[in-house]
TrEMBL record, chain A:
Lineage top rank: taxon: Bacteria
SUPFAM superfamilies (alphabetical): Bet v1-like (SSF55961), ISP domain (SSF50022)
Residue ranges of domain Rieske in the record: 48-158
UniProt cross-references to Pfam families, sorted A to Z: Rieske, Ring_hydroxyl_A
Keywords, sorted A to Z: 2Fe-2S, Dioxygenase, Iron, Iron-sulfur, Metal-binding, NAD, Oxidoreductase
Organism: Pseudonocardia bannensis
Lineage, highest ranks first: Bacteria, Bacillati, Actinomycetota, Actinomycetes, Pseudonocardiales
The protein's name in its UniProt record: Rieske 2Fe-2S domain-containing protein
């Protein structure tokens, strides 16, 4: 896809590298349809992209449909337990062969003219094959299969890039953070079968990724939520973002390869504090009383698991692990994005804790995320001003004593600094310039 | 309008009494403040209520039906006129306002909903809209809703009525008009001679699909 140069009205065309500078990015990165089309090929086609969670397709022949960028895909559990990621695109005349969100099937028959494909992609039947001469079973007519699929502790990723490094190398330090997020649970895993909030906004997909590593915004964008948390006097969840957040113990990181991280855990103190800080869920007191009566000394540890892990782990380009949710960024158009918040339960916990998890996971999509998405939409509107070209992301840059880089290249800084954005845009530029 | 940014965005919260005092003073029946009633039994009861919406009911007495229609029309008007505090007063002390994601309701014990609000959370929702800081509601949505196909199952012995209806909620906000079709299930209970809402289940036709700024009250 040729977009190494972009025409800017009133100026000569500029290189993709010119659109991303150390301290700023150009508005076209968020508004230009050609750049968006290139991203779907060069970013969503050339790096590891999160596709599904193991627990969504637990049994042989289970499948789930989704997208790899804009490509419709089917994620299939094969008989031997391996996962195949197929293009949901009939090799005859392009119709999708599977139109359900999930299910169980050994094969898919295209509803248009009836070509049939096994769930590993192989074309196994066409109606009245005589018309195709000797052999309809040509491998070129199998469903397109994404060449590399790997998973890490239940998170299934795929990439079209045959030369991509192994997933674990690509995740780098993010893998240990996923470990910490998962190891809160008794069996070290979560289950993704609890419905999802699908929230669509009229803005570029990167506005969501910018925001995921942004500890500057909560004090302002989430004022309604914070006010709600103070409704009964004591302050709740996230208030520490509101008062001099840089003086507290939280931090933000650029983990490399585009991944970013915000750690809110240092604002919590010991067993029971996660539970104590959470805004008041429906049924909170009834369920807490029950858990305390039944589990005694274990109650605080269990109740903490009804609340999020206070880690925001952002795996570039589309996976955001936040709270107890697995959030996926789904680009739809240059100025349209769906954020899907998959809720999770945990096997091995009392049912009451899982029910409380549901009520906790309804809180932020109701009272937090809508305000962010309103700001994303208004940012997209603001980006329509051609005369003001730049989006600034230089908070903390070059300011003495704010950011530190360790031997692994991880940059750690105050939670309101914009090094996470600067970090992922380096990866974006690398992928887009190839 | 977005308020100007003060140097410290947060006034210090008013301090509450010490938690020990509060715990002693807890009035479990004060359901605006405490949520003891939404317990596992409530969920079981709710499953029965949700199942009953798909039963066939005999035609209701026209008088009974028109009484119920009046309750729905009044509720609709209070929401559409943003009279949310009065809207809250239409509900019982142990109520539920439920907007499922899974079509038909699913199992709220193991699935998230758009809203699964006990009385306190409904009050939260109104409080949140009224903070003047919910940017997704600046400017505020205007809504108007149409309610039709009202059917009623009268249960005089329990002082209860089940009401099923279809709706379209029209919303206009920030230059964008949207419509939300679906059906309601209302469980009404008589308290001190008035019909109040014990359960309101809002079933959006496209409940599990993508929505933009789903922040209105249905
Ligand atoms: S398009 Fe699939 S069989 Fe023709
Ligand atoms: Fe946010």
């Amino acid at each position: 896809m040729a977009v190494s140069r972009v025409r800017v009205p009133g100026s000569p065309s500029i290189e993709i590298e010119e659109l991303v500078r150390a301290d700023r990015v150009h508005r076209l990165v968020y508004t230009d349809p050609e750049i968006f089309a290139a991203e779907m090929v060069k970013v969503f086609g050339q790096t590891w992209v999160y596709c599904a969670h193991d627990s969504e397709i637990p049994d042989p022949n289970d499948f789930r449909t989704g997208y790899l960028g804009l490509r419709p895909i089917i994620v299939c559990r094969e008989r031997d337990g391996r996962v195949a990621v197929l293009f949901n695109r009939c090799t005859h005349r392009a119709a999708t062969v599977c139109r359900l969100e999930r299910g169980n099937a050994k094969s898919f028959q295209c509803p248009y003219h009836g070509w049939t494909f096994r769930n590993d992609g192989e074309l196994i039947g066409v109606p009245w094959p005589d018309a195709y001469g000797e052999d309809f079973r040509r491998t070129e007519l199998n469903l397109g299969r994404v060449p590399r699929v790997e998973s890490y502790r239940g998170f299934i990723f795929a990439t079209l890039n045959e030369d991509a490094p192994p997933l674990l190398d690509h995740l780098g330090p993010a893998a240990q953070l996923l470990d910490q997020w998962l190891d809160r649970t008794p069996a070290g895993t979560v289950t993704v079968r609890s419905a999802a909030n699908r929230m669509v906004y009229r803005g570029n997909w990167k506005l969501a990724y910018d925001n995921a590593g942004d500890g500057y915004h909560p004090a302002f964008s989430h004022r309604s939520l914070l006010r709600l948390g103070e409704r009964f006097g004591d302050s709740k969840d996230m208030v520490y973002f509101g008062r001099s957040p840089d003086e507290g113990p939280m931090y933000a990181q650029d983990l490399g390869n585009g991944h970013t991280f915000i750690d809110q855990r240092p604002s919590y103190d010991g067993v029971g504090s996660y539970w104590a800080q959470q805004r008041l869920q429906p049924g909170r007191e009834a369920f807490e009383e029950h858990i305390r009566a039944r589990y005694g000394a274990d109650a605080d540890r269990l109740l903490d698991l009804a609340v999020g892990g206070q880690m925001n782990i952002n795996i570039f380009p589309n996976l955001l692990v936040i709270g107890n949710q697995i959030q996926v960024i789904e680009p739809m158009a240059v100025d349209r994005t769906q954020l899907t918040w998959h809720a999770t339960t945990v096997d091995g916990l009392p049912d009451e804790i899982n029910t409380l998890r549901m009520r906790t996971q309804e809180d932020f999509p109701s009272f937090g995320e809508p305000d962010d998405q309103a700001n994303f939409e208004e940012a997209q509107r603001g980006l329509g001003v051609p005369e003001v070209e730049w989006v600034m992301m230089h908070r903390g840059l070059g300011v003495e004593g704010r950011e530190k880089t360790d031997e692994a290249g991880v940059v750690t800084g105050p939670v309101t600094d914009e090094h996470p954005m600067r970090g992922y845009f380096r990866e974006w530029t690398r992928l887009m310039s190839r | 309008m977005t308020p100007a940014t003060p140097s410290s965005p947060f006034a210090e919260p008013e301090m509450s009494e010490s938690s020990a005092t509060v715990a002693r003073a807890r009035d479990r029946e004060d359901t605006d403040r405490w949520s003891y009633y939404l317990d596992p039994d409530f969920y079981r009861h709710l499953a029965d209520v949700a199942r009953s919406w798909s039963d066939d009911w005999p035609p209701a007495d026209p008088l009974v039906r028109s009484e119920c229609e009046a309750v729905l029309a009044r509720e609709a008007r209070l929401i559409d006129e943003a009279r949310f505090n009065e809207w809250l007063e239409l509900f019982t002390d142990r109520c539920l306002y439920w907007v499922p994601i899974t079509p038909g309701g699913g199992d709220p014990r193991t699935e998230v909903s758009h809203s699964f609000d006990d009385r306190r959370r409904m009050t939260d929702r109104v409080y949140w809209l009224r903070t003047g800081l919910a940017f997704c509601q600046i400017p505020q949505s205007r809504t108007r809703r149409m309610i039709t196909n009202v059917e009623v199952l009268d249960e005089p012995s329990g002082d209860r009525r089940r009401v099923r209806s279809n709706f379209v909620v029209h919303e206009f906000r920030a230059g964008v008009a949207r419509s939300y079709p679906g059906w309601y299930g209302h469980l009404l209970e008589r308290h001190d001679g008035d019909w109040r809402i014990a359960v309101k289940q809002v079933n959006l036709l496209d409940s599990e699909h993508g929505h933009e700024n789903l922040t209105i009250i249905f």
